Amino acid sequence: MVAIRSTRLAHDGWLKIRVATLSGDDGVAFTREVEDHGPAVAVLPYDPDRRVALLVTLPRAPVLLMGGATDVLEAPAGLREDGEDPADCARREALEEVGVALGGLEEAGHTWSMCGVSTERMHLFLAPYAARDRTGSGGGLAEEHENITVVEVPLAELRDRADANALDDMKTLCLVQTLRLRRPELFA
Fold it and tell me: TM segments (predicted)?
């Protein structure tokens, strides 16, 4: 069985980078770098009457670094504060990022985002809303410099993008496909 022998902090900023020394059954030690920024949430707000979803685009340094597009569609998401309930965090992020006050949430998973390199475990939610629930413009908090653009996308377009391998963000793809499985009539 593999066990952690020790860890050391290599970087302490918005995220932490830890170096873990592990050993296996054979006793041989090896290291792994671990990105550590804590638990997160993502939510897909969708209007079942108008058959649209609220998503965001924002510049992502890793995507830009790899020469990717600057307009990756994403479900609203964010990091949980210490002790914060995942559903409360999802509601907070939806209000901040897309300006929608959410009521009921439907759990869609609790998954490791990138279990090979990150400690991030993400709660995923689906959340119906109505036009009257749009209480603000969204766009994120100014002090976070996220440069968020709010986008309302027809569910049929999200279906087509998923089928064409054109939804580049993993959490968003998972949420769209989960909604398709649970509520296929919304995508007709």
Answer: none
